[in-house]
Amino acid sequence: MVLLLDLLHIFYHLLPVLLCVPKAFGLHGRGYHNHSKELELPTDLPNITYDSGEYHMLIAGGYKPLKNTLTKYVVSIRTSRATAYFGDNHFCVGSIISDNLIMTAAHCVVDRRKVVTRPHRLVVVAGAPNRFQKLQTTVEMKVRDVLPHEYFKRKGEHDIALLRLVHHFPDDNDFVKIIGLTNKMVQPGTSCQILGWGQLFFRGPYSAHAIVANLTVFSQEYCRMFYRHHFHETMICAGKQGVWDADACRGDSGGPLICNDEVVAIVSWGSHCGEKGKPTIFTSVYHHRDWIKITSGSETVRHLMKPQHFFLNLLLIYFLLQT
Predict the structure, then answer these.
(1) DSSP three-state, residue 187
(2) 90 is catalytic
(3) Which terms does the record give in the GO molecular function aspect (predicted)?
(4) Which position among 90, 107, 149, 209 bears the catalytic label?
């Protein structure tokens, strides 16, 4: 009885301290992520908007359109398993160039040791403008083949890869569509768009919504002024001249540079999310059009090499030689 009274006495004195712990560590309300609404941010900053009573930070110089008509052409490339919740495994962007082909950057699927990521470690997600929300229109696809350019150099030329999917995208989904590729060189001065779910600023958080930024394509001579020893003829550079407040960040790699409703280039690398006052570097689609055609048609060769097809083709060759 004496022990029980002592325990009650200790609890009585500790109770005020225990009640203060949730407030001290921000554990009030529903869980750990219910941030205080007393924080006020200036809405005149270029990368902050106030929407529906909440603040949304945007990629430097970017914006969230009221109606984003470009997200239907892109996918979020993710690791095969989410860490804690849907969408937290995003790391690159890709363009839907056929009903079972994704075009992205080679550095998204080739590590620094030149090891190509195995297909079963990847998944692509289409039809999810907010990468954390799985909608009825959202489509998740497994990858069958990872096909980077054979002459890819990190922070160099040929930063392009194709992902062949296990299945085909449905043709009746208005939120998942194929985008065309350019068949001509883009002219300097052309106004284009990039989009992605990348970091909102250098070493910052990734965006939940697909963010769009308007960029202008520069001449190759102008690009070489910034990247004298790194700029290659198979590259394009673009940005907002003088301001340099729009740039691709980590997580935007592999995404398309869209000009006049066509993909003209792929996000390759930039200058610390616009902080260093340099344009973003892209891989030119026009200069890799032959590689894209050959690589995307390699499925026929793959099938011919399967055992069941190999012997059939041997028999076909034998009969052709006999005639």
Answers:
(1) coil
(2) no
(3) serine-type endopeptidase activity
(4) 107
